[in-house]
Every structure is written in C-alpha cells, then in structure tokens.
Amino acid sequence: MSRAITYAFSLASPWAYLGHDIFHGMVARHALTVTYRPMLLGEVFAETGGLPLPKRHPARQAYRLVELQRWRSKRDLSLNLSPKGWPCDITLADRLVIAIVAAGRSPVDFMRAVHRGIWALDRQMDDEATLAQALIANGHSRDLLAQARSDSITRAYADNRDWAIANGVFGAPSYVLDGEIFWGQDRLEALEDALISGRAPFRADPKA
C-alpha cells in the first residue's frame, strides 16, 4: 500500500532546491503519494516565530552561508550563494505548482526548473515570461499562468499557509509523514529511516 506524505515548501528556498532530487528519488523508491503544499514562507515565519534572513543575527547569516556550501558539496549541485534573481516574489511560481497538480500533472520537473533558475542559472523566476518558458519546456501549457491567478488557486495557496501553521510546520522544506514533521533537507535520511522501519511516528509528548 502506498504511503502518503505531505511536502510543505517554497520554491524560493535553497534548502528545498538542495533536497529536491533526493526527496523525489525517495518518493519513487517507496512509491509514496505526495501532497504538494507550496506556502508563503514569510507569513509562516511571522506566525511561528521565524525571522526573514535580513533580520537574523549576522552570526546566523554567516553560518547559513557555510551550511549552503557544505550541502552544495554534499549534494553535488551548482548553487550560487548570491544569485541575481533572489530574493524574488515567488508567489506566482508557487501557485503554478498548485495549478499543475490541479490539472492532474506532476509538478516535479517544473519545480526543479524554478529551483535551478534561481540558484544555479541566475534567472529571474518571478518574471512571467521566464515562468512561461519553464512551463513549456517541461510539458505544460502557458495557460496555467492565468489559472495560477484564479480565486481557487489563491485560496488553495492561503490554505497551505493555514495548514502549515495549524500542523506545526514552521520552515521549508518540511516533509510530514503520519503527522511527524521532518524539517529541512538534512532530515531526509531520517525520513527514509522512518519509511524503511515502518515505525510509529514520534510525537512531541513529554510522557512518550
């Protein structure tokens, strides 16, 4: 029987980019059914005590840069530490993921294209023409741009934020298996351990 996992993320996150292929390889190995929940990360931070990068202490900002280099090397990916196209308004790209899923298609290749566009190729992935190219290059219609701006997709995007906050998700990427949150692409190995063992989910219960 296929197991279900919820993937909460933002396409602007370098950490989601670093974990993208590893996670989807795991999805294939374990025949997982994935619910994709792109979310407006700044609003999740605001509700859960997180800080946007410019407001973090310089020591935390410096450590982030070191970690990005470690994981760039570990994952053997191209990653620009200061890409020209970031920060950007990622909302349209995130909504396009929802629109692709709603159309009954896989968003995986489009997601990879947006991640790489920001972090490896210095593209402006909040530009509509650039997003249209990414859609077409990965087998989707540019008509999804209009759908991504529809009321239904707008509501779904807001619902993802609300779902994240209600379910204890506070950062991206987060992988939620049977209610247990694995935050960060550096927890993917722990996620696979849980899938292989079939153990019951761990809970934040002091009596456990």
How are the secondary structure elements laid out?
Layout: E1 4-9, H1 14-29, E2 33-38, H2 41-48, H3 58-75, H4 91-102, H5 108-119, H6 128-137, H7 144-148, H8 151-166, E3 174-177, E4 180-183, H9 188-197
Helix pairs in contact: 1-3, 1-5, 2-8, 4-8
CATH topology: Glutaredoxin
**How many runs of DSSP E, i.e. beta strands?**
4
Question: Roughly how much helix do the residues carry, as a percent range?
Answer: 40-55%
Strand content: 5-15%
Cα-to-Cα separation, first versus last residue:
28 Å
Backbone structural class: alpha+beta
The gross shape turns out to be globular
Major sheet characteristics: 4 strands, mixed
Annotated CATH architecture: 3-Layer(aba) Sandwich
Give the oligomeric state: single chain
List the secondary-structure elements in sequence, H or E: EHEHHHHHHHEEH
CATH class term: Alpha Beta
Order of the strands making up the biggest sheet: 2-1-3-4
| Rounded mean pLDDT score | 96
Low-confidence stretches: none
Q: What is the CATH homologous superfamily assignment?
A: Glutaredoxin
Structure description:
The protein has 208 residues and is an alpha+beta fold. The chain contains nine helices and four strands; from the N terminus they run βαβαααααααββα. It has one domain: Glutaredoxin, CATH 3.40.30.10. The chain has a four-stranded mixed beta sheet with strand order 2-1-3-4. Helix 1 packs parallel to helix 3 and helix 2 runs parallel beside helix 8. The radius of gyration is 17 Å and the shape is globular. The protein starts with a strand and ends in an 11-residue tail after the last helix.
